Amino acid sequence: MLSLRSDPRLFELARRVEYFAREKFNMTLPEMRFFILDPMEFAALLEKNVYPTSPINIWEGKKIANKKHRIETGQESALYYEVVQTGNPSYAYLNETNSALTQASVMAHVAGHCEFSELNVLHDSDRDRTEYVMHLVRKVDLARRQMGERRYIDYWNACESALPFIAPNSQYNLENSIDQETTMAKGAIEPARTPERERPPLNLVSDTLNAILKFDEPRPFVEAEKQRDRHEALSRRGYSLRAPCQDILGFLRQYAPTSRAERAVLDYLYISHHHQDFVIRTQIMNEGWAMYWEKKIMMELFGEDAVRGAIDYAKVFSGVCYPRPFFQRNPYHLGYHMWLHIEELYREGKMSLAYHEETDLDAKREWKQPDQSDPQECMRHLVKTITDYEFLRRFLTPELVEKFHLNRLDQRTAQRLGVKNEDIVRADRQWVWLNPEPIPNEMLGFFAHYYRPRVYIIDTDYLDGGLLLMHRDDGRRLRADWIRPTLNNLNRIWKAPVYLLSKDKLYGASASGYKESTVAEVPFEAVVERLGKQQQPFKAA
Amino acid sequence: MDVDRITSDESEGFFNDFIEDQLNDLVEEIINEGELDRGDASGSDLIIEMNDIEPPTLVYGDGGGGGGGGPGSGEPGDEKGKLKFEVPFERFMELVADKLHLPDLTKEGKGRIKEVSYQFKTFGPVGVILDKKRTFKRALRTSIGTGVYRPEEGRHDVEIRRKDRRYKVPQREEHPKYNAVVFYMGDISYSTFGERLELEKRLLNFVHHWLDFNYGKNNVEHRFFVHDVEAYEVTPEQFYQVSNIGGTRASLVFDLVSNIALNEYNPATTNFYGFYVGDGELFGNDAKEIVEILKERLHPMFNRLALVEIQPSRMSCLNTEVAKAFSSDRVIRTCALKGKNEIIKVIKHMFEARHA
After folding, report:
1. Which of A43, A75, A176, A344 could form a disulfide with A70 if both were Cys (CB 3.0 to 4.6 A apart)?
2. Residue range A48-74: average pLDDT?
3. Pair type for strands B129-130 and B179-187
4. Residue A22 above 80 pLDDT?
5. Mutate which of B1, B2, B8 to disrupt the A interface (most A C-beta within 10 Å)?
6. Hey, of B51, B57, B164, which one would you mutate to test binding to chain A, going by the most A CBs within 10 A of its CB?
7. Where are chain A's structural domains?
8. Residues of B whose CB is below 8 A from A57
9. B6, B18, B147 member nearest A52 (Cβ)
10. Neighbours of A436 (CB within 10 A)
11. Over pLDDT 90: what percentage of chain B?
12. Cis omega before residue B151 (within 30°)?
């Protein structure tokens, strides 16, 4: 790994890129540190989640062995376009085999990612992220020695089972789901209050008389008792669940009983992976933003002859931004063109109230009434306020689907997928075009589940201290042979029984064994409501 | 940042250790099942499949898991849900030898000298000798990808970039400079088919591999002989195919082998091995004649000579006679192979070190 200073030409290029980004385009950038890596270092970096160090683990070993084999046998190129770990400072890595032109475009691209990370509503950028992870790696190395090799491997492997369940930006994240002694869950649903009942004509004071008259309004002291019980439970355990919690690994990291060494492993895995949630929720905007600024900066570099090869760059750029059908969306292509479209909307004043209230279609079509606002500042405002879901929901229209070729697929793919004739609006020898109308909604569906099962913690004291998880029904079954080992692994972390509710099945893993039983199905919405009311979310019959 | 080089070597080593353990378990399983003839007679690398390792988690039943691969002692490959390895034949035999506690064979002849050669077996992005064919293939692939090569438009340019270049990387290889000759002798007068034939094949296949492994594949000559009332040399393929019903005289084959060993090889530079398989049912003075040949001609010359009675009957007498003359001998070994589960025992007995 070499410092950028070891290559004076690249160092100068980086200076120019930063100059244009900060001074000319007024970008909000953290400190950006560039390093030069050889191809195998690049491959290793990717397997380490873009951090320079990682604790010893078998999964990374497996992936790098596989990658090496693929590179050596020519199945995979060792050339990667760009890799950056955002944060403040940001660490970006350049592949030593790339040409100066490519290095410049990578640096410009990185600037785009860094600004996006700084500005975005999910507040991704944090101080010294890479340094903190490297500190955690050292802690895990110490933990490995404390735990001994066997226990370390077992514990790490157990944590791997929970790794896909990191959701710090979910609606049901820790912040919104867990009451602590000091902080109350933000998104907790207030217990529904029963409407004021008509008071009886007499102010009855006798309980016996109340019972005889079946006067069932909750007595004030009962509510107070419940309140006190809740507070005591909170005080005893330090937390209580007010809503389902989707950030399962985050929860285990905070509340599972762990030794210091185990906590170090959980901390490392959570911190080094939680950034991926931001990536998946903002990938289209983020990559589009990076491509947008990359091109702007590259044009400036070409303008002052800092780099040469505009035609080569155009070829690479068009390759990266090649359109793909909506189900194989290319975030570079879609994001870039969406941002260009939005820029045009702002430039022509089409985001104004007047434009939306205009009823004359011809006038709308010809609309060009730019206001005083800077389109790029308006785009930055969008970055600061929304993520991919809202980005697509607000701006992706069927017309744009058609324009960006999101509804176009080649004949062979259409045949392979069994596309029906009624879904095809037109076709030629090479392509078929699908009806663009339903496509925006189809694309939004991804953001509900990200092609992963949605699993939540719904009870942390199920059957005396058990952790109850719920798989939110979306019509698909879980892989059956992995439920048991997964629950066993979670049981190892939680150190008490762990249950999973999926449709009408209740699976349970504890020290005494594993069992499955059939139960009555409970809708997720009912669980949310019960938790909001501080009721038990699920009771096995 | 105080990192000189970003590397996953430690994790990779960790994974390789795991695979090594798995491989050991697999070899143990192979040994327990007596399936030591996994490789073919050519001694090529073995392809071993094991279930992929993947951390279990909650995924959809119709789309989770699988994939991946990694190296153990050999080359990894990809197949959904499977780890596929090419284990070099030598490595496999090493593991087997280790498990069976088989000693290194005593190699006599030209001493401990090894032949060193360099073979171009691997290809890398750096080096001295450019592999033009591989380089061109990569360049062509890239040119098609980047659109430089478009025959349909009459553009036949191929752009060779630095990263397309593939160089031949020499690999040092050491071969032991020993020679060995192995005489396989089989009795075709008895009904050699079905389980008997299977046992014979398994046993001799292992012997074949084991000696190839110890001396180097190209340094061992394997010769096959059969007998009924006559003895003659056959090809390896014929060895398991020819059969005859009728009388038998085994001493003839020992006589033939001793003549060939003496006349065709230099005893000073050659290691001799002999393996006789048959039902051990001999008539007249046949067994005694064999003992004589062994004592006078073969014992002084051979490193190891094993006589194996395959599924012997009450009539089998060869081993009884030979054992009387060579009990606890360093060279001559007698064994009886009754079933598949005894193959390991027989192999151990045939090759175990025993001091005279």
Report:
1. A75
2. 88
3. unpaired
4. yes
5. B8
6. B57
7. 1-166+259-273+295-309, 321-448, 453-532
8. 11, 14
9. B6
10. 21
11. 17
12. no
Is the pLDDT at A182 greater than 90? The verdict is no
The residues pairing with A424 across neighbouring beta strands, listed in sequence order, are A434
- Contact by Cβ (8 Å): B109, B98: no
Are the C-beta atoms of residues A383 and A374 closer than 8 Å to each other?
no
Between the alpha carbon of residue A264 and those of residues A275, A325, A494, the distances in Å are: 18, 43, 15
Contacts of A20 (CB under 8 A, 6+ apart): A296, A297, A300, A301
| Token digits of residue A71 | 């590179």
Check: CB of residue A125 under 8 Å from CB of residue A118: yes
- Rounded to whole angstroms, what are the CA distances from B253 to A346, A396, B3, B77? 99, 88, 70, 47
The per-residue pLDDT for range A278-334, each reduced to its tens digit, is 999 999 999 999 999 999 999 999 999 999 999 999 999 999 999 999 998 899 999
As annotated, the residues of chain B forming the CATH 3.40.50.410 domain(s) are 177-351
With a cut of 80, say whether residue B73 has pLDDT above it. Answer: no
Tell me which residue of B59, B94, B65, B90 sits closest to B80, measured CA to CA. Answer: B65
Please report the pLDDT score of residue B64 as a whole number. Answer: 41
User: H/E/C letters for each residue in A312-380?
Assistant: HHHHHHHHHCCCCCHHHCCHHHHHHHHHHHHHHHHHCCCCCHHHHHCCCHHHHHCCCCCCCCCHHHHHH
Strands B332-337 and B304-310 turn out to be parallel
Whether A97 and B64 lie within 8 Å, measured CB to CB: no
CA atoms of A395 and A401, how far apart (whole Å): 10
Q: For residue A186, what pLDDT is reported?
A: 58
Question: B177-351 — its CATH code?
Answer: 3.40.50.410
Q: What would the two tokens of residue A50 be?
A: 């873009």
**Tokens 């009459």 belong to which residue?**
B154
pLDDT score of B69? 32
pLDDT surpasses 80 at B65: no
ipTM for this prediction: 0.84
Give the nearest partner residue to B15 out of A61, A161, A489, using CB atoms.
Answer: A61
Token pair 């790794």 is at which residue? Answer: A163
